[in-house]
Amino acid sequence: MEMNSNPLLYEINTRVWIKRFGKNKKLHEVPLNYWIELQSYGFDYIWLMGVWQTNQSAVAKYCFEEGLLTEYTTALPGWKKEDVIGSPYSIEDYTVNPNLGGEDSLLKLRENLHSIGLKLILDFIPNHFNAESNLLKTNPEIFLEGSEDNLRKEPKTFFKSGKKIFAHGKDPFFDAWQDTVQVNYFSTDAREFMFNQLKKVAQLCDGVRCDMAMLVNNSGFIDTWGKYFSESKVSFPITEFWSDVIPKIKVDNKEFIFIAEVYWNKEYEMQQMGFDYTYDKKLLDRLKTEAIIEIRNHLLADINFQKKLMRFIENHDEQRSLKVFNEDKIKAAIVMLFTLPGMKLIYDGQFEGKLTKLPVQLDREPEENFNEQINSFYKKVMKITNTGIFKNGNWYLADTLQAWEGNSSNTNMASWIWDKNENRILVVVNFANHRSQCRIKFDTKNYSGEFIIRDILNDVEYNRSVEEINRDGLYIDLKPYCSHIFLY
To answer: Where in the chain do CATH 3.20.20.80 domains reside?
Structure first.
């Protein structure tokens, strides 16, 4: 069976989602039919977000800050204290949460997924653990220590645990995450410890999504923490953590994949360190601002780079896509998402048109209306793209030429071609709030005279002339946020 070069990943907020199957359900008890349906849409990977053990004692201490309370009320009016169970990115350690059935249940679930051709992705959180984790007692040497002076000057960045002072996890652009403790990537002991944690995780799944992966790069770590330790003669490691550990994990399993949550234009750098896929947040940002010229420029990047991007229009950190885009604009975004090269991430609830961005600290979700129109559109696009040409074909960006002199609406449009063997697909999207026209030239060497070009998205056929396409290009006229997917 041919490997999918442009795979689909389905993200699940595990602790919330599991409740849909009944009280106290365990992972392996989710009906196989649920997974079969996802597999039928073309999914290759399931990302169970939030399976690791959290620290209950830290919840009362860190999870009721004013900003979080506002988020809880917005997402879940009438929420109760017991609905707050702590962030899945502030973990005790890499033990599978007993409430989900523990490690045995997870392994049985993985077997179920494998039986129908699905693979399992889990979180790896390299930067930090929970600020109350027992590891502070058993393995204090792996964490970043500070001084009394650090604590006095920056009480939001440093905290006291027992007799020692440690740093909270942070990135350089925001305040520290109060419920976390920072792993010390200046330390070879800490790096060895984290490698062993990663090895343990890799025994349980088929790939890892690495949280804020760029934070532990040497340059990023020094940018964040170097200023605190410039006088203490810290010896910075020469090699990169990811470059060291990724090949070691892949020795035992060549098909094991690494996905980097990454920002700050570090995508290429992370790919060079061995990541199979890196977040493509830029695409989402440009879709939000309708910056079609910037989108086109983004799509001019080398195809080998683009194949390693993970595209998305929502995930657990982002607003729901239907909240960001209206019901017309989202259709253009959906067509783009599913017809571009690279991995595609779909977040649970996206197909149904959910509107609530649920804070990750909550384990209960609100009731929401099912959006039949959006659901039908997703299903149609996924049926079209769940084919060999989109999974393993060759992709090229096409030029959208002026339809006639003085008409600049062609700049609102984006177009690309997929080909595999004798099959070709032409995708055209009008990403503007008004009607737009363009012309597109493409290879017609297998055709003569007039031929049929079929729009499989809108179920319409057109009779077109080879001579016209060669001379002027195929004429396109699209309503706002509408698309063609032509089979020819």
So the answer is: 8-392
Q: Which CATH number, 2.60.40.10, 3.20.20.80, 3.30.200.20, 3.40.640.10, labels domain 8-392?
A: 3.20.20.80
pLDDT at 18: 98
**Per-residue pLDDT at 229:** 78
- Got the DSSP string for 171-200? -TTS--BTTEEEB-TT-HHHHHHHHHHHHH
Q: Give, for 396, the enclosing helix (H) or strand (E).
A: strand 394-398
Cβ-based neighbour number of residue 25 at 10 Å: 16
Helix axes 188-202, 241-252, angle to 10 degrees: 30
Q: Is the pLDDT of residue 1 over 50?
A: no
Tell me if 237 sits within 8 A of 244, measured CB to CB: no
State how far the Cα of 418 lies from the Cα of 393, in Å rounded to an integer: 6
pLDDT in tens, 291-346: 899 999 999 999 999 999 999 999 999 999 999 999 999 999 999 999 999 999 99
Token pair 């290759």: residue = 44
Report whether 125 contacts 197 (CB < 8 A): no
Q: Which residues, in sequence order, are CB contacts of 386 under 8 Å at separation 6+? A: 41, 42
Backbone φ, ψ for residue 342 (5° rounding): 110, 175
Which has more pLDDT, 446 or 166?
A: 166
Strands 343-347 and 8-13: parallel
pLDDT at 230 over 90: no
Q: Are 360 and 330 in contact (CB under 8 A)?
A: no
DSSP bridge pairs for 96: 52
Averaged pLDDT for residues 26-40: 98
| Structure confidence at residue 447 (pLDDT) | 84
Pick the CATH number of 394-487 from 1.10.620.20, 2.60.40.1180, 3.40.50.720, 3.60.21.10: 2.60.40.1180
Other C-beta atoms closer than 10 Å to the C-beta of 62 total 22
The first and second tokens of residue 223, run together, are 């940018």
Asked whether the predicted pLDDT for residue 41 surpasses 70, the reply is: yes
pTM higher than 0.85: yes
